[in-house]
Amino acid sequence: MDTELDPMKDDLPLMANTSYMLVKHYVLDLNVDFKSKVIDGSIVLFFETGSQYRKTSSTGKECCQSHFDESCKKRSSEPCHIPMTSVSACSSKYNDFAASGKGEEDTSDGNGSHSNSEQASGISSSKDCCDTENHGNKDFLLVLDCCDLSVLKVEEVDVTAVSGIEKFTRSAKLTDVSKELENLRNHIVHELITLPADCWKDQLYYFAHCSQAPGCGELLFTTGPWSLEIRKSGIQTPADFPHAIRIWYKTKPDGRSVTWTTDQSGRPCVYTMGSPINNRALFPCQEPPIALSTWQASVRTAAGFVVLMSGENSAEPVQLREGILSWYYYVSMPMPASTFTIAVGCWQEVKQQSFAAAIQTNNEFSLPSSQTDFRWHEEVCGHVEYPCRFQNPAARLQAVIPYRVFSPCCLMERCKECLLPLVPQCLSAAYATLGTHPFARLDVLIVPSNFSSLGMASPHIIFLSQSVLPGGSHLCGTRLCHEIAHAWFGLAIGARDWTEEWISEGFATFLEDIFWARAQQLSHDEVKGQQELKALLRWRRLRDEVQNSEEELQVLRPKKESTGEVSESGASVVKYGLKAEKIFMQVHYLKGYFLLRSLARIIGEASYLASLRKFVHKFHGQLILSQDFLCMLLEDIPKQKKSGLTVESIFQNWLDTSGIPKALLEQDEAWEQCPLVRQVSGQVTKWIQTNQRIRKSSKKKTKQEEVVFQKV
């Protein structure tokens, strides 16, 4: 039996019962209203039953492949454009609702409980719907992560009403006549979800049209502080529960997943700023990392605003009517819902000179010779099937992926001088280090001044703080390299347990130095000096943080041997995920960085980077735990260099304990011997002495003036 989660504690609850049902695809259809500071519309979720997904996918794949091979080949040569327009009579009503921004009234009872309108559905509501029994058996309850949302209606989607959908029913084996239609709908969703990767355009096409199909029955629902619970009367198993449901909802102006503010030019904007509660206040979803899903979204807003989003395509706006534009994005690589990102504002694209664009094009497909041994290994990927860039010969040669830079209009010139030239350099350096870029393109956005971090990486988009611009190319470049590194570590390879943040941040901190050194084309001595200086500064920052923080927050693997475990339903918690102090701590960046640095010194940097490339190639598109990386790395270390190094010893000395690891305690004196460190230390000492003399002189002058004033 699941332990009840207490939302008042410091742990962030992940309520979704992913062991029973898994979201495989989201279709969002939203309106952004800056006057009311509300995002409203609908989201359609397509599910697979958790316990049967892996068993049935191979069967469904074979069936679909026989029906779709010819159509896939034809469509794959065409550009992907999924029109979000009406496909049935119901769609005009659907779009009218969306365009007007008006729907059913919020039926909150003041205690967080909601239900569908009794007059509309004829279903009596109940706060205790999860306890309602049918002939002695409880109805199955679907639980989604949800917070700060007004849910208006939940309904089953009749996917059988979509034109052309009959091709998905050819292999259906329907035996129970009474449930024939319900089983057929779930069968169609299963066939659609398990289409082979080369049919991804067909898949998006039918997902879009299914999302606009009419409803075929409202579902009971209840909202709590952290969840949305949905049931269908008389349905007791996940297999029989509707596998395509539509949720009508709207956000709240003070919802914690998005920030409504103004940019540096004083114009309104809204964006996802990396909230500790992730995206559950933007749309109902399954938050646990295991719920890897794809998505597509149409977002409507007033003309003059630009919608940027996690998406493989560079969206171009479509005018729906005067003053209203629609933006469409999609993702075909399964990702956690927490990585979905959106930013809507009066952003301006920072354009590069035409000759610079030509240079980028000419260098775009250069292949460093040192990477050829790794790049051409024709191995089968270990992730679920999707259109993977690591299996695409053209993508494997692409040193610089297409990129754009956006900012408020008042910062465009500064971005053009400082940021724009660095993007291709940093992308090329990252490619030379790790190989194939996991994502096909990149947008970089300078976000509003209330952004609380220096940067944040999401699929296909990076947010940067305005604070990196005055620091010149060094601060801007190092931060850009850090966020680019997250494309591999944090996004393409994610932590199976979010408490292991070091897997993302430790790797990004370590790799930013490698990327930036290559982007600057520094000599060996310059690279060593720069890295030693940074190591010293990071060590002192870590020392200060350890002295001024709670011990429990200094542990990189706080759940220790329970890391990665979930309850029977799939629900779990992110330990200390809501603790206010944790948001501002750097310990998972710094201790993770020093662990990786120490391992690199043992194995040698060249061998170590080769191991990282091997690890990326094996685990991209998957979720990992610390031991997955450590076991693979230790296999590559010669026995004579291991000197007792084991996964258990690394856990004990680095990941499962607080404080500074013993291996770092004697490093301060060693760093002081670096010539660049001595040079900088001398300059800092001189600067401090100069300022002390100025302050003393100022104090003496002030004291003399006070004496004169008193005499007068």
UniProtKB/TrEMBL annotation:
<dbReference type="GO" id="GO:0008270">
    <property type="term" value="F:zinc ion binding"/>
</dbReference>
<keyword id="KW-0378">Hydrolase</keyword>
<dbReference type="GO" id="GO:0070006">
    <property type="term" value="F:metalloaminopeptidase activity"/>
</dbReference>
<dbReference type="Pfam" id="PF01433">
    <property type="entry name" value="Peptidase_M1"/>
</dbReference>
<dbReference type="InterPro" id="IPR027268">
    <property type="entry name" value="Peptidase_M4/M1_CTD_sf"/>
</dbReference>
<protein>
    <submittedName>
        <fullName>AMPO Aminopeptidase</fullName>
    </submittedName>
</protein>
<feature type="domain" description="Peptidase M1 membrane alanine aminopeptidase">
    <location>
        <begin position="437"/>
        <end position="654"/>
    </location>
</feature>
<feature type="compositionally biased region" description="Polar residues">
    <location>
        <begin position="109"/>
        <end position="124"/>
    </location>
</feature>
<dbReference type="InterPro" id="IPR033577">
    <property type="entry name" value="AOPep"/>
</dbReference>
<keyword id="KW-0645">Protease</keyword>
<keyword id="KW-0031">Aminopeptidase</keyword>
<dbReference type="InterPro" id="IPR014782">
    <property type="entry name" value="Peptidase_M1_dom"/>
</dbReference>
<dbReference type="GO" id="GO:0005730">
    <property type="term" value="C:nucleolus"/>
</dbReference>
<dbReference type="InterPro" id="IPR042097">
    <property type="entry name" value="Aminopeptidase_N-like_N_sf"/>
</dbReference>
<feature type="region of interest" description="Disordered">
    <location>
        <begin position="101"/>
        <end position="124"/>
    </location>
</feature>
